[in-house]
Specification:
This protein has 112 residues and is of the alpha+beta class. 18% of the residues lie in helices and 20% in strands. The chain has a 4-stranded mixed β-sheet, with helices on one face.
Length: 112
């Protein structure tokens, strides 16, 4: 599965029991968008330790899930304006690091 150029973060916490149909319905009703538009949609649970990514690949829908064993995904607060994440910031977000406070650099740039 390739990550699309655009990922929408759904700000309100979501019930992680929802599957493809339930999350697709949320995208359609809350955003007025088609879940099959080539964009990915990321959802987080109330505790912030689970993330689901809904993505259409042209022939079907992928639903991926990630769970942190410690900590929580740093998510924008409800009511924040539209913004963009760089690819590096997305990588930090999905690993559970506070992407809003770090200057993200590729791991190849790290000095040990």
């Amino acid at each position: 599965m390739l990550l699309p150029a655009q990922v929408w973060l759904i700000l309100e916490p979501m019930d992680m029991r929802l599957g493809i149909d339930g999350l697709s319905s949320r995208v359609q009703h809350a955003l007025g968008r088609s879940p099959c538009d080539g964009t990915a949609y990321a959802f987080r649970n109330r505790r912030g330790n689970r993330l689901k990514l809904l993505q259409w690949d042209g022939t079907g829908v992928w639903l991926s899930q990630r769970r942190l064993h410690e900590g929580a995904f740093v998510w924008p607060a409800p009511g924040e304006t539209v913004f963009t994440l760089t690819q590096a910031q997305w990588q930090w977000l999905i690993t559970g690091v506070d992407w809003q406070r770090l200057e993200a650099r590729p791991m190849s740039d790290w000095k040990v």
